Task: inverse folding
């Protein structure tokens, strides 16, 4: 049965992806290059959420506040399904390949910067109850969730964390969570399997009103000033990875649920 | 019939994306948040190409020379199907929304930088005959193709080009094509519908051996020195968009076929 379903799935994918775009006659011209299936020219409903997600992940779409209503189900399926996990695995594998080939000084100053939410810990249990980002962000409700300390490990990130430690790279957590969430964050990290770290940097009130790019760039610069070398930097938001002192290489994990500038 | 196929397609997608990952038991835990469909835990063959493409488009995978052999069909279907077109449309719409809201000086110095290959012109007829990037790059064969002058307009880019001109933004083409390809490129652009431009910048031999990031950053800096303001910058390669003088905002079009550093 599962095999039959998969066969139908791939037949359907083949048919769907080989159809021309409804936007003009141009892709039909392209289709001359390969044989045609189906009648072509039909819009495939729901596909725009795929394009929306790609635009988000590539930083083409910025400054958005909620997932489009019509994409709530799409984002939910993505986050709960295997694709999110597989997308993450390809990226963390790439990250470790970089770490492994990088010439480490081995003096204890080689570090890797991890963002926390949706990078190290998953708040999916919260977002699953709040429309996967389709509901407007509610800081009261979200902070209540944070204080439960029940965020889950992101399994591919946990693997990367362990592998980095095993080759002598130290880990710094750099999060937009506030200083008053230090204890619960620290306990949550430990319960999720992240037992040691060089530093856990939370956003102090002095950064209130500043962007994540500014806050994170400033804190990374401080790390470098202390002699640390940022071998890699991983986050789910482009604001974790843009700005200054970004590290030797940056890695963007998927997150179609929210945007932080 | 088409409707039935689509129904089967979405049923199959729903089933496939709601399955747990084969990598561990972790996603099954997540599935408690929503009802389960299917038997779960089965790997969906071919899905890794989706992850590969996402990693490429997000600049997580860099420095690769060919599309993985097992992804040739996947990339071919993507490039020839409607998804490539729809992904591009979301990005060019976003680009124009940016241009429209940007406060233009209106002194003829507001420009938009377009890369050429796979941004303005499509070489898909060539790549369709060369494994969609799965064959190693052959500069002789590719340059022969360039000299035919038969590259096609990318329809969403052409629309963006026209809309930008209509609000008074001038267009600069900045391409990695070499100076000796000026005439054929110029004719090809015109035949494809791009009739006017402020500048067409090709790679002079003085940049030989330099990266695209260096070449394009240098040329953009020269434009700024001449008083131009780069309102936007669009390309299919991250090397079109990284570096310096990148412009007020950058836009990354899809290209899973090749990588230029």
Result:
């Amino acid at each position: 049965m599962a095999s039959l379903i998969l066969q139908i799935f791939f037949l359907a994918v083949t048919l769907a992806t080989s159809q021309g775009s409804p936007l003009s006659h141009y892709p039909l011209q392209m289709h001359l290059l390969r044989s045609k299936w189906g009648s072509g020219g039909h819009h495939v409903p729901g596909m725009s959420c795929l394009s929306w997600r790609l635009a988000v992940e590539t930083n083409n779409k910025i400054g958005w506040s909620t997932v489009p209503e019509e994409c709530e189900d799409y984002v939910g399926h993505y986050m709960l399904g295997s694709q999110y996990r597989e997308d993450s695995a390809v990226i963390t594998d790439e990250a470790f390949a970089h770490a492994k080939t990088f010439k480490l000084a081995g003096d204890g100053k080689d570090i890797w910067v991890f963002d926390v939410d949706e990078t190290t810990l998953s708040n999916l249990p919260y977002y699953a109850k709040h429309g996967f980002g389709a509901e407007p962000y509610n800081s009261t409700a979200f902070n209540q969730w944070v204080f439960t300390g029940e965020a889950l490990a992101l399994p591919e990130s946990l693997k990367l964390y362990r592998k980095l430690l095993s080759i002598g790279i130290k880990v710094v957590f750099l999060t937009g969570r506030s200083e008053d969430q230090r204890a619960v964050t620290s306990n949550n990290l430990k319960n999720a399997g992240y037992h040691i770290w060089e530093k856990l940097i939370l956003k102090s009130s002095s950064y209130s009103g500043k962007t994540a790019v500014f806050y994170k760039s400033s804190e990374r610069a401080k790390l470098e000033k202390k002699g640390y070398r940022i071998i890699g930097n991983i986050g789910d938001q482009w604001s974790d990875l843009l700005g200054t002192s970004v590290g030797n290489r940056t890695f963007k994990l998927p997150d179609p649920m929210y945007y932080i500038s």
In short: DSSP finds ten helices and seven strands in chain A.
